[in-house]
Design a protein that fits this description.
- The complex is a heterodimer of chains A (about 425) and B (about 350).
- Chain A has about 425 residues and is mostly helical.
- Helices cover about 80% and strands about 0% of the residues of chain A.
- Chain A contains 17 helices and no strands.
- In chain A, helix 4 crosses helix 5, helix 10 runs antiparallel to helix 15 and helix 12 crosses helix 14.
- Chain A is globular and about 55 Å long.
- The two termini of chain A are about 20 Å apart.
- In chain A, about 55% of the residues are buried.
- Chain B has about 350 residues and is mainly beta.
- In chain B, about 15% of the residues lie in helices and about 50% in strands.
- Chain B has two helices and 26 strands.
- The chains are: A mainly alpha (about 425), B mainly beta (about 350).
- At the A-B interface, helix 2, helix 3, helix 7, helix 8 and helix 11 of A face helix 1, strand 5 and strand 6 of B.
């Protein structure tokens, strides 16, 4: 037991530094990172051109676009949870994840063959989201089960960094294809499909499934109630869910920055790229830092980054340098929370319910994120962006204090050792 | 399987995928280079430009040509004296409007990807390009050319996932400089301040004094006609159920879209309100209209009616109707939409 307090920090640091002098990133993690990279290139190619495609090619009316957008956002919560439970129950992490990847890939080719029937387009886009919901938890479970417990932060960091490469490359590739052959959306769908297939091929042919340590029929049932009795798990999930609720979504943060700078809608893709670059660069180092000094600690650092982001937006004239700093901190927030929280949940859940735990985390955070966005939207329209910034700053400071308090009681020690 | 054979089969699969996608890209590239789609305003021949200039010397109508073929979607002109002859540019516009001197062409572009508004000078040169926050919806240029207004559908920042809002802005002509976002206007109703979180503005129409405008305010499922002052940034609600107004040249009437039904089943038909008495006259037109109505003259309206087809290519015609309601509508220009009448 190393309770995380200042007194214990020294011995804690000593042990950690010795234990994780060299993180071991298993081949599986690199390969899954590569799979995610390809998949994200594929899906970001589509989503970056989707509004234009729907309007130019399909001549959808705006109302129909609103419906599609809604389906696109809201469909995954249940699927996430179910896929985690299924993967745990049948110990079929790779199979369930593969199904999710395959479903999304089929959707790319579906867009190519669908005509202008907007219901078909809406169904395809929902299925694509469904695929993403299905694959996330079993994929993260594979990462966590393949990695030594003391290296989990580094492993998730490496995975998230590779994932973010795809986020950056996808839109560039799509724009390049469209500018070299205008209006050929079919070419985008075909290339997107091909890249998704490469990702699936890497998953199916190269990634090892994780079934080796399974024995006895105990594993054929999932002990879901044990998750709810698992106090560290509940505390971590609660903190993560509250954080998602409080943290203003990317879209709104960028609107706030535009409001401060008075710039037009054209800069939004650049802001996304700025955050993604920072996230990409910092994910692995901050993951490793989490392994060394404690994951809860780095998670709290992430919260502090978000406080600084809002403080920057609230108080300063957002010049170019400030803008860069804000985006750097925004990326640092992701780098010190997203993979780190997955590592934390992996640390405190037994392997039999690992995918379920990760899935519950995903479901909780995506639901609170949606709720938070709705509320931010209402406050924005009702009181204006100034109030949004003030409230976000206050809420993030409160969240910083709350998570420092709640997580300080959370045992950061792995429950199982030597699973790798 | 050991690692080496798995790597080998992976390499083979990847090579096959790359070969397939590469071949598709190659043929797509060859195909699209043989059917040029012409970037904005670059390929106009001298003869074309002369024909356009000749038509634009007199009273004319500017519109979006929808004849299937190479001119589809292009900004095109016809003389009001001779509607059978068209002279086109290669500028693609989804919505357009003109004053005697200036124009605004809203376009959905695939290279670069995005929504843009091109401000056009008297020579149809693009003087300024505005980045639109979303899909082009309505546009008007004030008759004296000082201001232009446009409405975009914004889906990107809709916080309620299924919600969709409009964003309307007024810009200075020809600089394109921002004058006002209609969302920043103070609204009053019956002398009292009126505010709600779900305000949406669309469909601006200018008066002879470009500072004074009419527009639509949507809130709580109701449609309100507002009249306002651009410099003072004030609107006042003057009527209900008058959507997407269009002021007649003599400023005696407002033509508008009357809404029937609601939600997905809603449709719109043209109607006219007399501003002196505020009496509404429904016109003998049963077809559904979408875009803002344009005035041909003080007694006649122009509006686009889309073909009911499931084909991906949008087809529409511009129809004409007299506002006295005495005669049925007739086709004014086939295969065209977004009319803008210019009389010098």
């Amino acid at each position: 037991m190393y309770p995380i307090d200042v007194g214990g920090l020294r011995s804690f640091l000593d042990r950690r530094l010795r234990a994780t002098a060299r993180p071991v990133i298993p081949r599986t993690v690199w390969l899954l990172g590569l799979v995610s990279c390809f998949t994200d290139i594929s899906s970001e190619m589509i989503s970056s051109i989707l509004p234009v495609y729907l309007f130019v090619h399909l001549q959808l009316s705006a109302v129909q676009f609103g419906v599609i957008d809604g389906l696109y956002q809201g469909v995954t919560a249940v699927a996430r949870l179910a896929s985690g439970v299924v993967a745990d129950r049948w110990r079929q992490y790779k199979l369930v994840a593969t199904l999710g990847y395959v479903l999304s890939a089929i959707c790319k080719i579906g867009l190519l063959v669908t005509g202008s029937a907007w219901t078909a387009v809406a169904a395809i886009l929902s299925a694509d989201r469904l695929g993403k919901g299905i694959r996330t938890a079993p994929r993260d479970a594979l990462i966590s089960l393949a990695t030594r417990p003391q290296d989990l932060g580094s492993a998730f960091g490496v995975h998230r960094a590779l994932d973010t490469v795809g986020v950056l490359v996808g839109p560039l590739l799509a724009f390049w294809i469209l500018s070299s052959m205008p209006n050929r959306f079919d070419a985008i769908f075909v290339v997107s499909f091909a890249i998704a297939l490469i990702g699936i091929a890497a998953l199916v042919l190269l990634v090892d499934d994780r079934r080796g340590d399974v024995s006895g029929e105990r594993h054929l049932t999932t002990d879901l109630p044990s998750l709810l009795r698992n106090r560290p798990f509940v505390a971590i999930t609660t903190v993560a869910a509250l954080t998602s609720f409080v943290v203003v979504s990317d879209a709104f943060l960028y609107l706030l920055l535009q409001w401060k700078r008075g710039s037009g809608a054209e800069t939004i893709p650049l802001l996304y790229a700025g955050t993604a670059t920072s996230y990409l660069v910092l994910a692995a180092p901050l993951g490793r830092l989490a392994d060394r000094v404690g994951r809860t600690r780095v998670f709290v650092i992430g919260q502090a980054c978000m406080v600084l982001v809002y403080a920057g937006v609230a108080t300063l004239d957002v010049g170019l340098w400030t803008l860069g700093l804000v985006l750097l901190l925004h990326g640092a927030y992701y780098a010190s929370t997203d993979g780190v929280i997955a590592a934390l949940v992996s640390t405190v859940t037994r392997s039999e319910v690992r995918a379920s735990g990760l899935a519950a985390l995903n479901t909780a955070t995506s639901l609170t994120r949606l709720a938070g966005s709705v509320i931010v939207g209402v406050i924005w329209s009702w009181r204006g962006p100034g109030t949004v910034v003030t409230l976000a700053l206050a809420a993030s400071i409160g969240m910083l204090a709350l998570s420092a308090y709640m997580l300080s009681a959370t045992n950061d020690r792995p429950l199982e050792t030597g699973t790798a | 399987m050991t690692t080496a054979p798995r790597l080998r089969s992976f390499a083979i699969v990847v090579a096959a995928i790359i070969a397939g996608a590469g071949a598709y890209l190659y043929f797509a590239r060859v195909e699209s280079s043989t059917t040029p789609t012409g970037p904005a305003g670059t390929a106009d021949s001298a003869a074309q430009l002369q024909a356009v200039a000749r038509i634009r010397k007199g009273a004319h109508v500017a519109f979006r040509d929808l004849t299937p073929g190479p001119t589809y979607g292009h900004l095109t002109f016809s003389s009001l004296e001779n509607l059978t002859q068209r002279a086109g540019t290669t500028l693609s516009c989804n919505r357009l409007h003109f004053s005697a001197t200036d124009g605004l062409c809203l376009t959905i572009s695939t290279a670069p990807v995005g929504f843009f508004g091109h401000l056009l000078d008297d020579q149809l040169k693009v003087t300024q390009t505005i980045n639109l926050p979303g899909m082009p919806s309505r546009t008007r240029v004030a008759r004296n050319g000082k201001f232009a207004a446009f409405t975009s559908f914004v889906a990107g920042d809709s916080y309620l996932a299924a919600g969709l809002s409009t964003r309307s802005r007024i810009v200075r002509v020809p600089s394109g400089e921002d004058v006002a976002d209609l969302e920043s206007f103070a609204v009053s109703r019956d002398g009292k301040e009126f505010h709600s979180i779900d305000f949406n503005f669309w469909g601006v129409t200018f008066t002879r004094d470009p500072n004074r405008i009419y527009a639509t305010l949507g809130t709580g499922g109701r449609i309100l006609l507002v009249e306002g002052d651009v410099t003072a940034r004030e609107f006042r609600v003057i009527a209900e159920d008058i959507e997407c107004p269009s002021l007649s040249p003599d400023e005696k009437h407002i033509a508008f879209k009357k809404r029937f039904g609601s939600g997905f089943d809603a449709w719109w038909q043209p109607a006219v309100v007399d501003l002196a008495t505020m009496t509404v006259r429904q016109l003998p037109e049963s077809k559904h209209i979408d875009d803002q109505i344009e005035w041909l003259d003080d007694g006649h309206l122009l509006y686009a009616v889309g073909h009911s087809t499931s084909a991906p290519l949008r087809r529409a015609d511009i129809w004409m109707i007299a506002i006295d309601g005495g005669s049925p509508s007739s086709i004014f220009l086939a295969d065209a939409e977004s009319p803008a009448v210019v009389r010098r």
